[in-house]
Amino acid sequence: MTSQTPKTWFITGASRGFGREWSIAALERGDRVAATARDTSTLDDLVQQYGEAILPLRLDVTDRDADFAAVAQAHEHFGRLDVVVNNAGYGQFGFVEELSEAEFRDQMETNVFGAMWVTQAALPFLRAQGSGHLLQVSSIGGISAFPNVGAYHASKWALEGFSQALAQEVADLGIHVTLIEPGGFATDWAGPSARHATPLPAYEEAREKAAQWRAQRTGSGPGDPTASAAAVLRIVDADEPPLRAFLGSAPLGIATADYESRLATWRAWQDNAELAQG
Prior knowledge:
Layout: E1 8-11, H1 17-28, E2 32-37, H2 44-50, E3 54-58, H3 64-78, E4 83-86, E5 92-93, H4 101-129, E6 132-137, H5 150-170, E7 175-182, E8 195-196, H6 204-217, H7 225-237, E9 244-247, H8 250-268, H9 270-277
Parallel strand pairs: 1-2, 1-4, 2-3, 4-6, 5-8, 6-7, 7-9
Helix pairs in contact: 1-7, 3-4, 4-5
């Protein structure tokens, strides 16, 4: 897929996974990319291959001032921003009782506040040019929830909430917002990037059940992050991009079952809701 007019991207967490693959896909078709990473040496090969089309920026998204400075630097360097991708994040594993205060706060600082600060930093530039597209990398875990990743779900549900509100706030300003909701992909989300709470013996049986459930859900194997790039390019090139977009075959089934269950419960208890109204 090619873009009629080259776009300028700002992508957080570009050192690996989705961020890296989408950066490469954008660069390959002639777009320009401001790519952020905690360690910019991970981007050296891309700089060597794509030259001035890529601007590597060292960034820890939990640093609000650094977020604003990085977005401003990217805009100054390239002259505009068309696609801003909030991809930086990680998975915190642990049952709710097992999570420490620091683990829960750190999860929110990266996955929620990091995305919030980059979003706020980009909006004045997008408003001034009357166009732009924010891609918020959420997850099927942003609309459903499973054991052992409660902190992660909390962060993605928060991201979904402020992003859906934002989409309505900026709709008349020429700015689009899309929540990208992947299923299981072969990134290092559950590998080196993941963090794990100290397990409590009381949850061993529940932990095993959760692992079995995940294995059944991903029996066809995780998706290919490289292949996901084509779907993302299609979204950013659409005249009317969606507010939410799944990546992978599994999320639709999970979402359908979850929402059908919610609707059934709400309807079954509607008389109780009306009783509360008086």
